[in-house]
Specification:
Elements: H1 2-22, E1 35-37, H2 38-47, H3 49-56, E2 60-73, E3 79-83, H4 86-89, E4 93-97, E5 112-122, E6 129-137
Parallel strand pairs: 1-2, 4-6
Antiparallel strand pairs: 2-3, 2-5, 3-4, 5-6
Helix pairs in contact: 2-3
């Protein structure tokens, strides 16, 4: 009986070790001061949404730089800036959501800006719109 218990304990320990070895540990890819261009994150999502999610989703982009296409409010009345070129991205771009409209009220189409925000992925559909939440203007 003791031998059976001993064998079961060893099997349990080995199973646990196999589970730990098989676990994937993701590290944060955020780097202080890192500059990411809006066109680069847009291109990554246009090429492969799953791979881009692995690279950017949930990540705080400390400096995302781009050109203002337009400002507006989403369906939840959250003010946003759409970074990107209509000519290149055909209605898509990087949508940066802000808490307060005052943060973006002075911006105009064509302004070059840098934004801090957290990437929450891409809106499903044919048009690529990458979403950054909790944004603030850096410059």
């Amino acid at each position: 009986m003791k031998r059976v218990i001993y064998v079961l304990v060893i099997i349990s320990l080995l199973s646990g070790l196999i589970g730990v070895v098989g676990c994937e540990v993701k590290s944060s890819k955020s780097t202080v001061g890192e500059l990411i261009l809006a066109k680069d994150i847009y291109s990554a999502y246009a090429a492969d949404k799953i791979k881009a999610d692995e690279e950017y989703k949930g990540r705080i982009l400390l400096q995302l730089q781009g050109t203002v296409n337009h400002t507006g409010e989403d369906s939840f009345n959250n003010p946003y800036i759409l970074l990107g070129s209509e000519e290149e991205w055909v209605g898509g771009g990087v949508r940066c959501l802000f808490e307060d409209e005052g943060d973006i009220s002075s911006l105009s189409k064509g302004d070059k800006i840098t934004v801090k925000g957290k990437c929450s992925g891409c809106i499903p559909g044919n048009v690529i719109i990458v979403i950054l939440k909790d944004c603030s203007l850096v410059s």
